[in-house]
């Protein structure tokens, strides 16, 4: 059977490389076009890329010639366009792709909070995909734009969703320890981060405090009603390479009788990707560990091939209030937080015939 053709925009960056790696030997999708910035257009991928992931450059992509991120340069029979472009570039070009009929699934921040743009983690809010019909009506596009959330948000909300469903959530306080790769290939200078922690990431706290409310919200006609949860975030950059660790305090609406109920809720949680057994779906999207010193970025970031988040240290935070619980969650920022979640969306669209 012929594979579905896909393109990767910004294929030479850290997220772009993760796409190339995860799409190597994908059972349904085949990468036929890759793009980069002007300085690399016309070069072979294998010659232009500074490859940073384990395993080396997959053979299939070495000789593909890098194109401009322009819909005229991508073959018309491409079904899904995966975007790993910087926000400012995505803002300009993603609508051009959608207008030309391509289904763009994107990691870039642009358009995430637009009311007619679905912001999706398939296990949590797959039904929001309906918004592409609103988008098409309003914007006159035959294609569509679907978004991934910010990586830190994705990891947090996967751990929150079972709590929202079982106990209700009122307030969340989160402090993050985010890996260097989250800032992109040219992100943080080594002189700034070695022997150091930077307690500030531009724009990040707003994203963590707001994007999750849309993802956890309810589809209501032509828009999403945001979840009624207050989130306060402090985001920091730490000298790890991959895997964002987050310390989370949560005020529940209804206090369970024991912590075991919280563990069970997290362990039982699953969604459309697990039911459909999609190729990139982890068996369980939330894993709970009991060792007191886990999860750790180096040891746990590849859980579920990077598609599961790992929760540990679940305990009551009764010093703050009766209904407060605290835990630590870890997820792979480039996989569940970026390329992996994007491909999972495309797998669900393809499997369910969302056209
Ligand atoms: N890193 C993460 O954990 C993460 C997580 C979630 C979302 N995101 C988002 O995903 C996107 C990519 O992030 P990244 O970390 O992969 O960044 P990155 O390493 O800086 O890569 C950027 C990519 O975009 C290309 N590019 C840059 N300027 C361009 C232009 N003017 N026209 C066309 N292409 C251009 C680059 O090509 P050249 O190689 O030719 O410069 C490269 O392929 C960003 O929007 C980011 O916010 C990142």
Task: Give a concise summary.
With 355 residues, the chain is α/β, with parallel strands linked by helices. The protein has 13 helices and 14 strands. The two termini are 19 Å apart.
Write up what this structure looks like:
With 355 residues, the chain is of the alpha/beta class. The chain folds into two domains: 159 residues, 3-Layer(aba) Sandwich (Rossmann fold), CATH 3.40.50; 182 residues, Dihydrodipicolinate Reductase, domain 2. Helices cover 31% and strands 22% of the residues. It has 13 helices and 14 strands. Helix 12 links the parallel strand 12 and strand 13. The protein is globular. 49% of the residues are buried. The model has no long low-confidence stretch (mean pLDDT 97). It binds NADP nicotinamide-adenine-dinucleotide phosphate. The site of NADP nicotinamide-adenine-dinucleotide phosphate has 30 residues, from helix 1, helix 4 and helix 13. NADP nicotinamide-adenine-dinucleotide phosphate binds next to helix 1, helix 4 and helix 13.
| Beta-strand share of residues | 15-25%
- CATH fold-level topology of the largest domain: Dihydrodipicolinate Reductase, domain 2
| Full CATH superfamily name of the largest domain | Dihydrodipicolinate Reductase, domain 2
List SSEs in N-to-C order: EHEHHEEHEHHEHEHHEEEEHHEHEEH
CATH architecture of the largest domain: 2-Layer Sandwich
Please identify the top-level CATH class of the largest domain: Alpha Beta
Tags for this entry?
355 residues, alpha/beta, Rossmann fold, six-stranded parallel β-sheet, six-stranded mixed β-sheet, 31% helix, binds NADP nicotinamide-adenine-dinucleotide phosphate
